[in-house]
Design goal:
There is one protein chain. The protein is α/β, with parallel strands linked by helices and 304 residues long. Helix content is 40%, strand content 14%. The protein contains twelve helices and nine strands. The protein has a five-stranded parallel sheet. Helix 6 links the parallel strand 5 and strand 6. It starts with 12 loop residues before the first helix and ends with a helix.
Length: 304
C-alpha cells in the first residue's frame, strides 16, 4: 500500500508518534556531522524525490532537498511553470508519468484538491508540502522543537494567535492526535475552517481574545497575517492589529513558555523584534527541524 503524507488527521496517532520519534533519533544520531553526509542507515539510498512548487519557498525547498540527500537519495526540483502542468496538463496525467520516473513526489500547491487528485492516481508516495488548506510537515517540525525544549507535547497547552490559516488547521489536526490542547485566537472574520476545527474536537478551543488564548499557555505560536495569495492586505492589517505577539502578550503565558513562528516573519506586524529575537524564541531551531521532521516523513513513506 502506497504511503501518502497529505494531512495529519488522516494518519493513525501511532504512525505520527513513530515519525516524530524517528525525527528525534535522526537529529541526535548525526550531531556534528557535515550537512552533506548521509545518515548511517540511508533509507533513501538510490531513491529520487520529485519536488513541484506552485508557490515560492525557502524552508520547504531547502529542507526537503537536504533531507533526501541525507537519506542517501537525490531530488529533481521544478516549478509548475517549468512543466506541462503549468500549461494545463491534468494533474492526474502528471502523477501517472512521475510515478514511472521517481520514488516519491512532494508538492507545494495552491489548491489542496490538486494534491488530493494527484495522490489518488500516483503509485508512489505523495507528500503535502503546503496547500491553501494545510501544512502538515511544518507542524511536525514545530512539535519536534517543542519536545526538544519542553518534553512530551501531550498534556501541554499551545496558543495559536492570528490567522485561522493552513498552518492553524494542521495544528488543530495535531492536537487531537498528539494529546495537547490548542487555544486558537482569531478575529471572527478570519476563523479557521469549521471542518478542520471539528477534526480537533475537544482538544481545540476557539476565541477572539488573544489574551485569553495566551494565558498560562506553554507555547505561543503565530504566523504572518497576509499569506501568499491573499488579496485583502489592508483589511487584514486592520483586523489583526490587536493580535501582535509582543512581550506583554507573551508574559501572560507560563513563566517558561516558548515562542514559535514558521517564518517568514513580518517583524512589527504579527511579532515584535523583542519576541522573535528574545530568549523565549525557538524559531531558528524550528526552521532547522524542518529537515529532521521531513527526513522522518520520507523514511516513513519509503516503508521505514
Amino acid at each position: 500500500m502506497t504511503r501518502h503524507f497529505l494531512d495529519i488527521h488522516r494518519l493513525e496517532a501511532s504512525d505520527l508518534r513513530a515519525i516524530l520519534d524517528d525525527a528525534h533519533a535522526r537529529k541526535q544520531a548525526r550531531k556534528g556531522w557535515p550537512q552533506g553526509r548521509a545518515d548511517a542507515d540511508a533509507p533513501g539510498r538510490d531513491r529520487v524525490l520529485a519536488m513541484i512548487f506552485e508557490k515560492n519557498s525557502t524552508r520547504t525547498r531547502f529542507s526537503f532537498d537536504a533531507a533526501i540527500r541525507q537519506l542517501g537519495g537525490s531530488s529533481i526540483i521544478a516549478t509548475a511553470s517549468d512543466m506541462q502542468l503549468g500549461r494545463g496538463e491534468p494533474v492526474e496525467d502528471t502523477a501517472r508519468v512521475l510515478s514511472r520516473m521517481v520514488d516519491a513526489v512532494m508538492i507545494r500547491a495552491n489548491d489542496h484538491e490538486d494534491v488530493e487528485r494527484f495522490a489518488r492516481v500516483a503509485t508512489v508516495p505523495v507528500i503535502n508540502g503546503l496547500t491553501d488548506r494545510s501544512h502538515p510537515c511544518q507542524i511536525l517540525a514545530d512539535l519536534l522543537t517543542i519536545e526538544e525544549h519542553r518534553g512530551p507535547v501531550a498534556g501541554q497547552t499551545i496558543a495559536w494567535i492570528g490567522d485561522g490559516n493552513n498552518v492553524c488547521h494542521s495544528f488543530m489536526h495535531a492536537a487531537a492526535k498528539f494529546g495537547f490542547h490548542l487555544n486558537v485566537a482569531c478575529p471572527a472574520e478570519y476563523h479557521p475552517d469549521l471542518r478542520d476545527l471539528a477534526k480537533g474536537g475537544e482538544a481545540v478551543s476557539l476565541t477572539s481574545d488573544p489574551r485569553e488564548a495566551a494565558e498560562r499557555a506553554d507555547v505561543v505560536v503565530t504566523d504572518t497575517w497576509v499569506s501568499m495569495g491573499d488579496k485583502d492586505y489592508e483589511a487584514r492589517l486592520h483586523a489583526f492589529e490587536a493580535y501582535q505577539v509582543d512581550e506583554a502578550l507573551l508574559d501572560l503565558a507560563a513563566p517558561d513558555a516558548v515562542f514559535l513562528h514558521c517564518l517568514p516573519a513580518h517583524r512589527g506586524e504579527e511579532v515584535t523584534d523583542a519576541v522573535i529575537d528574545g530568549p523565549r524564541s525557538l524559531v531558528w531551531d524550528e526552521a532547522e527541524n524542518r529537515i529532521h521532521a521531513q527526513k522522518a516523513v520520507l523514511a516513513w513513506c519509503f516503508g521505514g
